[in-house]
Each structure stands twice: as C-alpha cells, then as structure tokens.
Amino acid sequence: MTMPATGAAPLPRSILFLCGMNAIRSPMAEVLARKVLPQATFVASAGVRAGARDPFVDAVLAEKGLTLGNRQPQRLDEMEDAYFDLIVTLAPEAHHAALELTRSMAVDVEYWPTADPSGAAGTRDRILDAYRDVRDRIEQRIAARFAAGGP
Predict the structure, then answer these.
(1) Residues contacting residue 70 through CB under 8 Å, at least 6 positions apart
(2) How far is CA 60 from CA 42, 71, 112, 136, 142, in A?
(3) Which residues have CB under 8 Å from 149's CB, separation 6+?
(4) By C-alpha distance, which of 27, 32, 57, 61 is closest to 44?
(5) Which of 22, 27, 115, 128 could form a disulfide with 47 if both were Cys (CB 3.0 to 4.6 A apart)?
(6) Residues of the chain with pLDDT under 50
(7) What pLDDT is attached to residue 9?
(8) Nearest Cα to Cα of residue 83 among 104, 105, 112
C-alpha cells in the first residue's frame, strides 16, 4: 500500500465507491478522489442498479474544473475486476450489496451515508445547490479520510 503524505497509515491501493445507480454520488466521489489520491491508487465507482448519467453532476464538477469525460454509469456486476482494498458505500442499498459481496473476502467496507440530491425540487439554482452540497460533503470526507490515511 502507498503511504500518504503525512506518513500515517497506508492508503488503499484500490478503492471502489458504490451507490445506488452510479449516476450521482459514486461518480462524484470517484472524480474527487482521483484529484487528491496518488495516481498509483486505482479508483473506480459503480452502482447496484442501472442508472443514467445526470447532467447536474457534470455541472457541479465543472465548477471545480473536473469532468467525468465520456464515462457512463456502470453496475457492480458489469465490472471486470471486483476486488478492491476498500469499498466505500454511499447509500444503504449499496452498503448491503457490498457486505454481501465481501462476506468471504478480506475487503474493508466503509459506509458514508450521503443524501441523494436527485429529489431536490424548485429552481435550477436550488437543485444545483443540493448537488453542490453533496459534492462538497464528499470532497470533505475524502480529504479527511485519505489525508491522514485512516478513517
């Protein structure tokens, strides 16, 4: 495992962010984590169910100078490699799926309960504020978790 800059506990070599449909929370987390983790750390995201790309995710990531590129949502069962050192779940159904998946594997699973902003209503600005809040909370959680190498 790679050592974080602070010299604390080792960083995982591979991290999977998992949510319901891999449309909002987990792709945001993947892009935000790639921004701060060493290139040697493999970062991916997936969903439990099929989802569609959400344009509000593109908008709030662009505000930070980040992009999903041409990446499309993927389901956990579509992934070529399902072994990770750490699986971070962002929704209850994703946490349940990760625990089932890893029942016989030595994989750390962390649950980071994260609101789903897709239910936000009102003006475009109100909806974007909900997505920004999720983005910022995930970004803070990633910084706190991986800056020191420990939970």
Answers:
(1) none
(2) 23, 16, 20, 10, 17
(3) 3, 4, 6, 8, 9, 10, 11
(4) 27
(5) 22
(6) 1-7, 149
(7) 59
(8) 105
Q: What is the DSSP string of the chain?
A: -BPPTTS-SPBPSEEEEEESSSSSHHHHHHHHHHHHS-TTSEEEEEESS-----HHHHHHHHTTT---TT----BGGG-S----SEEEE-SHHHHHHHHHHTTTS--EEEE-----GGG--SSHHHHHHHHHHHHHHHHHHHHHHHHSS--
The rounded radius of gyration (Å) of the Cα atoms in the chain is 15
Contact 19, 87 (CB under 8 A): no
Query: In the structure encoding, which two tokens stand for residue 149, read together?
Result: 């190498």
Distance of alpha carbon 31 from alpha carbon 60, whole angstroms: 12
pLDDT at site 83: 81
pTM: 0.90
